[in-house]
Amino acid sequence: MNWEDGISALVLLALALLICFGSFSTLAYGNYHRPGPGFLPFWTGVLIGLMSLGLLVKSIWLDGGPGRKSFQGSFRKPLFALLVLTAYGLLLVILGYLICNFLLMVFMILLMEKKKWYVALGSGLITALAFYVVFSVWLQVPLPRGVLF
Amino acid sequence: MGLIENVLYGFGVALTPLHLFLCFMGALAGTLVGVLPGLGPVGAMSMLLPVTFVISPTGALIMLAGIYYGAQYGGSITSILLNVPEEATTIVTCLDGNAMAKAGRGGPALGISAFGSFIAGTLAICGTILFAFPLTSFALKFGPPEYFGLICMGLVILTYLSRGSMLKSLVMAVLGIFVSTIGMDSMTGVSRFSFGNISLREGVGLVPIAMGMFGLGEILTTLGEERKQEVLKAKLSHIFPSLQDWKDSTGPILRGTILGFFLGILPGGGALVSSFASYAVEKKLSRYPEKFGTGVIEGVAGPESANNSGAQASFIPLLTLGIPTNIVTAILLGALLIHGITPGPLLMKEKPDLFWGVITSMYIGNIMLLVLNLPLIPLWVKILHVPKYILFPVILLFCLIGVYSVNNNVFDIFLMIFFGVVGYVVKRLDFEPAPFILAVVLGPIFEENLRQSLIFSRGDFSIFFTRPIALGFMIVTILLVVGPFMPRLKRKKMILQKE
Question: What span, in angstroms and rounded, lies between the C-alpha atoms of B107 and B84?
Fold first, then answer.
């Protein structure tokens, strides 16, 4: 049995059931003469459900062996990157993009290569300023300045 | 206006200083993106999409188109020198291109790649100009059932040609259609699956999805694995191919151009399919097929010409029918819709400056790329030495700023992060993200035409099978869906994928 495909299929099946239930209970299905807003979402749920059943059958009976291990390698760096990005999103409006860009660069450099702190700080500062010049000054893209500026 | 007058008008639009500058910037950005790891043309176009809000739709499309075909040129450099295809469309170039480089013939490989791409691009643009009128006239016969059939066919062709399981690709396509329904229903104004969130009521934007799955997802994948890149230390000399090289490459270039052009027009087609098909054809036609993979110039000339020809041709369905045939043109459609332009059969009449300006700018862009690529190869190689710890955070910053600036909404950043995780997970589990994104872009058109068809036919589904053009599309769709489950066709597909 291919465990990974099997679990993917079960997750998709659960999602399909939620979609079908959500479409039918909260939206007007309409009829074939005049399909309502719930019509297409419902049928996408049905199709996803049917295909995930097919995937489940394939993983249990047709695929020999446990399948390759897809999640090999380290998760530490990707997880840390996601934390940094989430913090960026939460702090962007408060601290402003200049400080957030600087902090993101510093943390990402330290995460990726464990460089000396002054390398990270220097690179972060140069990059944040370069982005400021390109996006705010040159392209006039409106970005949040934060409470400090 | 006749054809020649239209083309001259197009050159008049494309040769303005601003459009020339935008074409150059697009070609340069495309080449850079093609060379650098971690970001493809889709990610780059998504990042630069907000920048296009301050310019005209014509300028926006010229720049974004430049990124697409520029990336074909740039991707060849890493394929030949590093044996690392940063673009899927240049995978086959690695086979013989890198072998040529290792044998000290990297220069001619890069040279024939650039010249072949230029010749193919030029001929493909001529083909585009010739095909535009008849295809537009044909498209005027399309009604909602025909558009519905065409979109079904396009989605299914893309899933058929995707790597790995077709079932998984179909799941991604249908999921994409579901995600496209999130937000306000255009026909009734009812909010769907927004859970009371004001941001979700606008729907899930293309930019957070594309940047998340292709930009952030790729970076997360790279962070989780260690991959060392060895840049070829050999000196590059004689980038101009010899007379013998030209003799050997002429046939492959011409065949690649024609093959790439017709495959590029098809839904699901474009540069990717074209390059693979060309390699297979050259190998079959060669007097010494056993030498393919060891460094024969035909193995570079054909696919490189085909991928650029396919890239140019993929604009035809977008501009004439308003239907994108692959992810890149889906992003372009998204860009046009953001600018308030709906491409289709009437685009040529209503916006001739955009239509002819973009087509003629592609020719100018190809000239620029030839100039950029050949003498600047050592510079592009130097860029590859930029350390990853600088490169990836900078790419992330581009993605974050790009996604925020579309709606000035922090929620889009969290959406990008969510789809970044989704992109990371699905790639690991062998689910292709491309059908998902194409379906998200096509979803609203798909639903609108489905519902209009059913209203028109009073609920009778036979409308999709009684109108000849729609019937043709539905037959191809059904054959492609059923085909992989038939043993003989399944074997053929596996052989195709293996080759």
Answer: 17
